[in-house]
Amino acid sequence: MQTSKNYDVAVIGAGVFGAWIAYHLQRSGKTIVLLDAYGVANSRASSGGESRVIRMGYGADEIYTRWAMRSLALWQEFFRQVDEPLFHRTGVLWMARQDDPYSVSSTRTLQKLGVRFEKLARAELEQRYPQIAFGSVTWGILEPDSGALMARRAVQRVVQETLKSGADYLPEAVETPTCPTGNARLASLTTRSGLSVRAANFIFACGPWLPKLFPDLLTDCIHPTRQEVFFFGVDPGDRRFASPLLPVWIDFGDEIYGIPDLENRGFKIAPDRHGPLFDPDKGERVVTTEGLSAVRKFLAQRFPGLKDAPLLETRVCQYENTSNGDFLIDRHPAFDNVWLVGGGSGHGFKHGPALGEYVAARVVEGSTVEPRFTLATKGKVQKRTVF
Ligand SMILES: Cc1cc2nc3c(=O)[nH]c(=O)nc-3n(C[C@H](O)[C@H](O)[C@H](O)COP(=O)(O)OP(=O)(O)OC[C@H]3O[C@@H](n4cnc5c(N)ncnc54)[C@H](O)[C@@H]3O)c2cc1C
Asked: Which atom of ligand 1 lies at the shortest distance from residue 172's CA?
């Protein structure tokens, strides 16, 4: 069997989580190998989409607002350094109804943490966004400094920089680690092609694949669900559905959100409701006719100017949901030097930089993990509270 050199850390999975973990560890002076079965931010990965929303509002969940704030700063600093404009500051508009508790508590958290936002009454919404028919929406929150990240390219850029500063990359599929009974430290892992990878620490950031790699531990804790995404074309020269006239928008009550036309790819719209269970390896990625007609119906009501807009592109991706939407960051119960990181639950992308920093600090300093991220707190029944 071929054996790799001995690394400080092997990071398995080059999605947004693995990429930023490797980036921070590399900067802290560790020797790193990053492995991915299908390639960096590949088409099956949850991070492989065109764009992802970055917003600060998280209801009363202050920890995620803090992480989103930290992440936005790190994303922007990174894009400045590498001179690539992969963040679009479109603003993010939350559409709310009368006493919508999530939106009300978001305003409190944003205020407390000093995040800039505007509370807009229905009349102001109508005046600023005449291209939107607000229906039952009665007020809104605008986060002017938030927006959208060009997801796939951003992850690829983070990995590129990490490799440039000395990390290694292996296009290998890793097998589930095994160890002689009683040995609490993993010395190496094996890839499907027969390579043995040696490291002092192993971090599995395998997104929706985590339950496949650790079935006994994670099958009931992480549920990959099928999610559909649609891109519609606007009329020639019509800029009403692009930034700056249209921000990213989220209709929390109707569980749907959209991203204005970025880089001329079309108006993106996606339901946030969890779809059926999905296999990230074998699942076919074609949207359903029911999904398309539901989205068209919503479009006709909320964005009447797009009623007859042609469908340009579609994607099927998967969320990797924990029971309530909290991330998973913990040591493997059988190995002191194996970490499990995932459970992005449809909202993880934005947090890549802060999560990477957090995990790197845990690995380097050995500090404890926030209880809500641990395996012990992961429920088995789906009951979403973090969005
Ligand atoms: C449609 C959709 C819309 C979303 N919108 C948003 C949004 O607007 N804002 C937001 O913040 N978040 C959003 N998310 C969530 C976010 O994209 C995910 O939480 C995040 O990308 C998860 O990243 P990850 O690195 O954990 O997983 P992935 O990106 O899936 O990466 C895991 C990697 O592990 C690799 N891997 C798996 N098994 C192995 C193995 N055995 N050996 C080697 N490599 C392996 C895979 O090839 C893959 O590249 C959305 C997700 C979807 C699907």
From this structure: 43
CA dist 212 and 209 (Å) reads: 5
Cα of 327 to ligand 1 centre, how many Å?
A: 12
Q: Is 31 in the pocket of ligand 1 (CB under 6 A)?
A: no
Contact 171, 107 (CB under 8 A): no
Q: 327 CB under 6 A from ligand 1?
A: no
The closest of 370, 362, 369, 328 to 345, measured between CA atoms, is 328
Cβ of residue 335 lying under 6 Å from some atom of ligand 1 = no
Q: pTM of the entire structure?
A: 0.98
Per-residue pLDDT of the chain (387 residues; tens, 9 = 90+): 899 999 999 999 999 999 999 999 999 999 999 999 999 999 999 999 999 999 999 999 999 999 999 999 999 999 999 999 999 999 999 999 998 999 999 999 999 999 999 999 999 999 999 999 999 999 999 999 999 999 999 999 999 999 999 999 999 999 999 876 667 899 999 999 999 999 999 999 999 999 999 999 999 999 999 999 999 999 999 999 999 999 999 999 999 999 999 999 999 999 999 999 999 999 999 999 999 999 999 999 999 999 999 999 999 999 999 999 999 999 999 999 999 999 999 999 999 999 999 999 999 998 899 999 999 999 888 889 999
User: What burial class does residue 63 get, using C-beta atoms within 10 Å of its C-beta: 0-12 exposed, 13-18 middle, 19+ buried?
Assistant: middle
